[in-house]
Amino acid sequence: MSASRKGVDEERGFSAAAKVLGLTQSAVSHSIRGMERKVGVVLFDRGRKGATPTAAGVVAAGHARRVLRLLDTLVAEARGVERGAVTGPLRIAAFHSAALFLLPPVLERLTARHPGIKPEVHIVRELGEGTAGEVAQGRADLAIATIGDSSPVPAGLIGDVLLQEPYSLVYPAGHSTPRSLPLVDWHENCGSYTRRWWAGQDWIPKATVLAEDDGAVLSLVSRGLGMAIMPALSLNEAPHGIAITDLGPERPTRSVGYVTTPELASSIFVRALIRELRAARR
């Protein structure tokens, strides 16, 4: 039943889910109706455009994915005891700069020590539920997320801060008055972790250019089209033509950490990754 619900949630229709699962449409529909009777709520709105999960359906599907993942982990680790090493996928959700600059050396060490672990990295925008939402919905085993006082670990999950990255002023190299330039920003940089500091800076104008990601911001700034205020991870391998200036002792910082479920935190896969993440911050 869990597999059927998972399929309908992802495929947005009973017929499409049935094809993926190798079942008949009537079997999937019957399974969902039975589950709705047991739970006592409607899990999907049925319409001409397919089946759309209700709020209750979204929660149920998340729990179903997490249960299915635990079953996969049980099998992998039980076989690992017999074989002397675990094998299988490790699903990681990370925002853009973390995936580019934080994870590669960590995963290099992880796979050297555990060749059977196969990392699968999905880049997720750190907006709304962000990377932690992928863990909550059972789509990832661990997320690299922005966490802290203003971005707490979601209820039901656990995590810890790995590093505090400072923000810096970024502008075209050689510009004599960078604070006079227009502001270039991107959606993920508008988080609450900088909002109070941002509001207190009367020299920062409203963004006139809003890009899709931090890489686009760096490209625009390097061509003299404005200045930006960016966290340290985004400034790894900054292109030529860019100058970076410290914003002083009151500068804002962003807390970057990991988020996982209490159940998966004790698994060999996730424990090994957390160990490497913590080693990297030393």
How would you describe this protein?
This protein is of the alpha/beta class and 282 residues long. It has three domains: 1-84, Arc Repressor Mutant, subunit A (Orthogonal Bundle); 86-163 and 255-280, 3-Layer(aba) Sandwich (D-Maltodextrin-Binding Protein, domain 2), CATH 3.40.190; 164-252, Periplasmic binding protein-like II (D-Maltodextrin-Binding Protein, domain 2). The chain is 41% helix and 23% strand. It contains nine helices and eleven strands. The chain has helices at 2-11, 14-21, 25-39, 55-83, 96-113, 130-136, 192-199, 214-222, 268-280; strands at 44-47, 50-53, 88-94, 117-123, 142-146, 158-172, 184-186, 209-211, 228-231, 242-246, 253-260.
Task: Please outline what is shown here.
The chain has 282 residues and is an alpha/beta fold. The protein contains nine helices and eleven strands.
Question: How many separate domains make up the residues?
Answer: 3
The largest β sheet comes out as: 7 strands, mixed
How far apart the termini lie comes to 45 Å
Helical stretch count? Answer: 9
Q: Give the CATH H-level superfamily of the largest domain.
A: Periplasmic binding protein-like II
How big is the Rg? 22 Å
Second rung of CATH, namely the architecture of the largest domain: 3-Layer(aba) Sandwich
How are the SSEs placed, and which strands pair?
Layout: H1 2-11, H2 14-21, H3 25-39, E1 44-47, E2 50-53, H4 55-83, E3 88-94, H5 96-113, E4 117-123, H6 130-136, E5 142-146, E6 158-172, E7 184-186, H7 192-199, E8 209-211, H8 214-222, E9 228-231, E10 242-246, E11 253-260, H9 268-280
Parallel strand pairs: 3-4, 3-5, 7-8
Antiparallel strand pairs: 1-2, 5-11, 6-9, 6-10, 6-11
